[in-house]
Amino acid sequence: YAASLKESSQDVYTRMFRDFIMPVFADLPLSSIDEDTISRFNGKIMKFSPGFKNLLMSKMKKVLSFALEIGHVDRIPNMKRVKDKRPPIVTFTLGQLADFIAAGERMGPAAHIAALLTADMGLRAGEVCGLPWGDVNLERCEVIVCHNGSEGSGNTPKGTVGTLTMSQALHRAL
Questions:
Q1: d(Cα 28, Cα 87) in Å, to the nearest integer?
Q2: DSSP reduced 3-state for 120
């Protein structure tokens, strides 16, 4: 399973196990992990966001599911998801987008192009950082999004890999 994940995801999950799961469960036999143990674990992670708590619990459930599959436990304790009351997603207004692009332009050509790639094309920061010139086709006004420069990993992006048509403003800036 771990080998199928991107390097950045592997790093995050390794830290989650090391920093949160192992300190609570490392000395316990898997067969002794029950609803009470899970409840105590929930108490220790109470201060974190619902999304992070659910992520930790999903990783713990994956371990226990594997243990069930290979016969080390007879059952998986009930693990309830925390209700995640996320605030609505706030998007930029057209005026704010124009201000963002103008700020990038004032900072110089590289910042201007980065602002256009994010604002006009919806690229994530890692996708902007990982975009090589070979994936930019000025003649066809296209950008191929198939790299992510997150922490120098050079992985594929989280989102859809594909070809996007660049805006006229981005074409002029390039």
A1: 37
A2: coil
- Tell me the per-residue pLDDT of 131-152, one tens digit each, with 9 for 90 and over: 888 899 999 999 988 877 755 5
Q: 143: exposed, middle or buried (C-beta count within 10 Å: 0-12, 13-18, 19+)?
A: buried
Give Cα separations from 45 to 19, 70, 112, 174 (angstroms). Answer: 11, 28, 41, 47
Report which residue type is found at 87. Answer: P
pLDDT, one tens digit per residue, over 161-170 is: 788 999 999 9
Return the number of other C-beta atoms located less than 10 Å from residue 130's C-beta: 22
Residues 69 and 72: their CA atoms lie apart, in Å, by 8
Burial grade of 3 (CB within 10 A; 0-12, 13-18, 19 or more): exposed
pTM of the model: 0.56
pLDDT grade for 19, boundaries at 50, 70 and 90:
very high
What are the start-end ranges of the H helices in the chain? Answer: 7-16, 22-25, 35-44, 50-69, 94-107, 109-119, 125-129, 168-173
Q: What is the pLDDT of residue 157?
A: 63
Which residues sit opposite 168 in a β-bridge? none
